[in-house]
What does this fold into?
Amino acid sequence: MHEILKPIWQDLVDYDWILTDLDFMSDEKIPIDFDHDYFVLNTQQFEEVYQSDTQIIWGIISAVPKNTALDFNIISRLSAEDENAWKSDQFLIQQSIVEIIAFDSSYTIAKFKDNYLKNSKNT
It folds into this structure.
């Protein structure tokens, strides 16, 4: 995740972060755990995860504009195994500007709605 976001990190400070369907490993104290189905983190909270040595094994990570109205009933049931995760024009969280989907530490899919972010990621 760190390598995916590093080129655009400064462009994402005005977003909240939604994390759901998570499995991860971390030796550090971070603001996510296994007691909740999803997390809504502000930039500072997400930066703790971003800067840590946490390995996201499984899950959906989305940047959404701050104060976006979201349906948490739907978000709590989302799965990285959804077939739409593999479609480049489909976002599991519709309000996402960036969506990262991790599969069993084997695959990571990164999607960008904003062409600037998409192109910056490739530089």
